[in-house]
């Protein structure tokens, strides 16, 4: 790791902690968040030349607080007649940081911040953008680049999200015990979205986007550190590790998608597999079952097999049956059908697929046709399989998927 | 998801007052959804280029000689197709005879 990468990691680790301190002292999410971004920027400019200060965290808190106060003063000067100041200073707030006021509170602050950024009043896309900036410490330009979007589009998305948080009166505090399960679900969903955005793009021209997987894993680790006993948090972290472990094998040298069954298993990351498997094994024996744990357990079964032919499809089928019961959705049914086909024959899988015909959530969706084509190919119904691969290729909005589906159809050409 | 919004005009319609897209621009701009915007010149100013078997044919005028033609387009990034359609309704008034909402291809994909 280079010095600049180490510096970036340090700054990103400290970003939510510093924001937590500012929010405790002064309140006002929007203003505090801007001030922290400015302090991070100042550090990124000054530290490489002047050296990292003895207490980087205190340095950032001090600089961010100064920026905040400056900002409030200029704001007040501009809008003198306005009755309410944008930021209220807590009575005991001093500018000098308390020496060594680091501690376990930082973990809680990071979690509280995640709850705030994933507030239900925001759209998922805004939750994602705000989380990456306020908790992940990314600049708006970096968030925009990761989503292949102009900064001019991302900037209003983030500021609108911050205004919305202010407008609904959401504050920097832990949700009540009653609200907490739903709010945690929303946080995990956002982390999952960030991961997926990066995972699907982790090759070729989209490398910056691919870094989102690393970021999602880092943030999920933080949540896991705060809530070590939560089975779904552990499940999500495990799912991410077990999925990302296959990253190097999932695309060929030419960028083409390689299906799981055909991946070179020597390219899988053994350390990630070990960590992910241990996490899900421990959490499933200690916590109530949830969808992330089940998906992680399925991913663990896939990566445990030395060869694709050794995959324990019967266990996978059982886990999908449970997942269908506790978190039914058409995508789960599609995967369930594949597991049924692998254990009870392709016809049984095709029959299960029929239950999805006419499901409005899958209308014009390529995946149903892709799975049907795959099962028809297994059943030896090559002409029908070819037609469904072609149909799926027409319907997908992903270029590599389209290329893959066309190649599958081509293989069945006579 | 990124969508292209193609705005169609009909040359047979009498010329109108132009576009009023204030509502659309405010809604998509403030929400951080608007990625790009282009207004097209009249199709009579187009040149259609065709290369067949190495033979280049260049013709003045639009590619398709239809009365309805694309007069401009926006690219938006939205949560869902439903949201893109909602934004399109803000465009389809006055002179515009219709808006085509079309997904853009993504360079990312899932292994199967």
From TrEMBL, chain A:
Boundaries of every RNA polymerase sigma-70 region domain copy: 10-76
UniProt keyword annotations, A-Z: Sigma factor, Transcription, Transcription regulation
PANTHER family linked: BLL6612 PROTEIN, BLL6612 PROTEIN-RELATED
Entry's family note: Belongs to the sigma-70 factor family. ECF subfamily.
Protein name: RNA polymerase sigma factor (Sigma-70 family)
Domain DUF6596: start-end pairs: 183-283
GO molecular function, one term: sigma factor activity
Source species taxonomy: Bacteria, Bacillati, Actinomycetota, Actinomycetes, Streptosporangiales
SUPFAM superfamilies in the record: Sigma2 domain of RNA polymerase sigma factors (SSF88946), Sigma3 and sigma4 domains of RNA polymerase sigma factors (SSF88659)
Entry-linked Pfam families: DUF6596 (PF20239), Sigma70_r2 (PF04542), Sigma70_r4_2 (PF08281)
Species per Swiss-Prot/TrEMBL record: Nonomuraea dietziae
Matches recorded under InterPro entries: DUF6596 (IPR046531), RNA_pol_sigma-70_dom (IPR014284), RNA_pol_sigma70_r2 (IPR007627), RNA_pol_sigma70_r4_t2 (IPR013249), RNA_pol_sigma_r2 (IPR013325), RNA_pol_sigma_r3/r4-like (IPR013324), WH-like_DNA-bd_sf (IPR036388)
From TrEMBL, chain B:
InterPro entries linked to this entry: Dimeric_a/b-barrel, YCII
Protein family according to the UniProt entry: Belongs to the YciI family.
Organism: Nonomuraea dietziae
Residue intervals of the YCII-related domain: 24-105
Pfam families per the UniProt record, alphabetical: YCII
Superkingdom of source: Bacteria
Protein name stated in the entry: YCII-related domain-containing protein
């Amino acid at each position: 790791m280079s010095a600049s990468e180490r510096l970036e990691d340090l700054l990103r680790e400290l970003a939510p902690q510093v924001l937590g301190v500012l929010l405790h002292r002064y309140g006002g999410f929007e203003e505090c968040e801007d001030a922290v971004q400015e302090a991070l920027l100042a550090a990124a400019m000054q530290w490489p030349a002047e050296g990292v200060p003895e207490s980087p965290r205190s340095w950032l808190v001090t600089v961010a607080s100064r920026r905040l106060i400056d900002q409030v003063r200029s704001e007040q000067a501009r809008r003198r007649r306005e009755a309410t100041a944008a930021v209220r200073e807590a009575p005991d707030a001093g500018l000098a940081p308390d020496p060594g006021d680091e501690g376990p509170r930082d973990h809680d602050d990071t979690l509280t911040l995640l709850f705030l950024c994933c507030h239900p009043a925001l759209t998922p896309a805004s939750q994602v953008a705000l989380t990456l900036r306020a908790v992940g410490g990314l600049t708006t330009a970096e968030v925009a680049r990761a989503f292949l979007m102009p900064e001019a589009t991302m900037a209003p998305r983030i500021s609108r999200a911050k205004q919305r948080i202010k407008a609904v009166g959401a504050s920097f505090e832990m949700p009540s015990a009653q609200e907490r399960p739903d709010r945690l679900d929303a946080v995990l969903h956002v982390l999952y979205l960030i991961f997926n955005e990066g995972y699907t793009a982790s090759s070729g021209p989209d490398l910056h986007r691919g870094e989102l997987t690393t970021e999602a894993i880092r943030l999920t680790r933080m949540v896991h550190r705060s809530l070590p006993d939560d089975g779904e948090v552990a499940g999500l972290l495990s799912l991410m590790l077990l999925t990302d472990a296959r990253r190097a094998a999932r695309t060929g040298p030419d960028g083409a998608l390689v299906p799981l069954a055909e991946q070179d298993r020597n390219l899988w990351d053994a350390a990630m597999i070990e960590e992910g498997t241990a996490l899900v094994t421990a959490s499933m024996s200690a916590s109530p079952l949830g969808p992330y744990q089940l998906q992680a357990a399925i991913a663990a079964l896939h990566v445990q097999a030395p060869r694709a032919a050794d995959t324990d499809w019967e266990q996978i089928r059982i886990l999908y049956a449970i997942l269908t019961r506790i978190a039914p959705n058409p995508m789960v049914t599609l995967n369930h059908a594949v597991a049924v086909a692998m254990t009870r024959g392709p016809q049984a899988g095709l029959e299960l697929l029929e239950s999805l015909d006419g499901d409005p959530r899958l209308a014009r969706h390529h995946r149903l046709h892709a799975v049907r084509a795959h099962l028809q190919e297994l059943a030896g119904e090559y002409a029908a399989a070819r037609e469904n691969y072609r149909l799926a290729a027409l319907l997908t909005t992903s270029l590599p998927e389209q290329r893959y589906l066309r190649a599958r159809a081509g293989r069945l050409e006579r | 998801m990124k969508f292209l919004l193609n705005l169609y005009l009909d040359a047979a319609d009498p010329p109108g007052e132009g576009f009023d897209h204030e509502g659309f621009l405010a809604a998509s701009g403030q929400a951080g959804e608007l990625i790009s915007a282009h207004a097209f010149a009249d199709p009579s100013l187009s040149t259609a280029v065709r290369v067949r078997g190495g033979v280049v044919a260049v013709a003045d005028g639009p590619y398709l000689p239809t009365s309805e033609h694309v007069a401009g387009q926006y690219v938006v990034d939205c949560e869902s197709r439903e949201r893109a359609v909602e934004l399109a309704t803000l465009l389809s008034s006055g002179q515009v005879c219709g808006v085509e909402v079309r997904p853009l291809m993504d360079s990312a994909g899932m292994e199967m």
